[in-house]
Amino acid sequence: MNSISLYINKGSWLNRLHPYTKLLYILTAILVPLIGGKLWLFPVMITASLCILASGRILGKAMPLVLFSFTLILVIFLIQGLFNHDNRTVMFSIGVITFYREGVLFAVRIGCNILNMLLSFGIFVLTTSPQELVDELEKSGFSPKFGYIINSVFQILPQMMATRDVIADAQRSRGMETEGNMLVRIKAFLPLISPVVMSSLINTRERAIALEVRGFGRKQKKTWLYDRPKCKWDPAVRGILVFLLVLVIVWRIW
């Protein structure tokens, strides 16, 4: 049975990297432009994330994140470009609609920040097995309950999407119209969403029983059947990321 998660195992160097290394990349990708304070640092980190995704052969899977971010960026661009309270300098006009330089620059900064965060998190989510992350967290001393929460966060959305597809197929087989104009979709919404919610509640209860049967709350120290092999790239990547963070901090101070 396929794992219910966004994780994609391409056997690339990204899959072999330790989860903590990829978490450090997220921290670096977000902090470098914010600490540096320069707008051009956002495109630099975005380009780096795109290159990393391409090297891991998962760039195509990250495209929905890019398209989603463009929708948000467009809305932010319209709102800030037209109605930002600091708007003073006219940048360009389209008919009677006037965009201002201050608002557009503010929107560009926010949009780049959104895209940068989505891509950096995409690297982590698409190349890190949730179970592997939970195991490493527990080996580091975190509570199994914390690990379970993290695992659930990674799996809840893909699980609900899979359940929705199954229920939609079942409802269509019974003659229900789920595709068409807006009115048809509105009519089909409640018969589709209700079973999804009920199924999620039932799955939560069944999971709680399964965890209790397996001794989830036991106090004894946990043993491990599988030890994760070390990746030779981890020390080098961590060193580069820490160096970038220190460099941008020193640069900002001086």
Automatic annotation (TrEMBL):
Keywords: Membrane, Transmembrane, Transmembrane helix
Protein origin, superkingdom: Bacteria
Membrane spanning stretches: 23-53, 65-83, 103-126, 236-253
Name used for this protein in its record: Energy-coupling factor transporter transmembrane protein EcfT
Primary localisation category: membrane
Listed Pfam families: CbiQ
InterPro entries assigned: ABC/ECF_trnsptr_transmembrane
Membrane topology per record: Multi-pass membrane protein
Record's keyword annotation contains Repressor: no
Subcellular location: Membrane
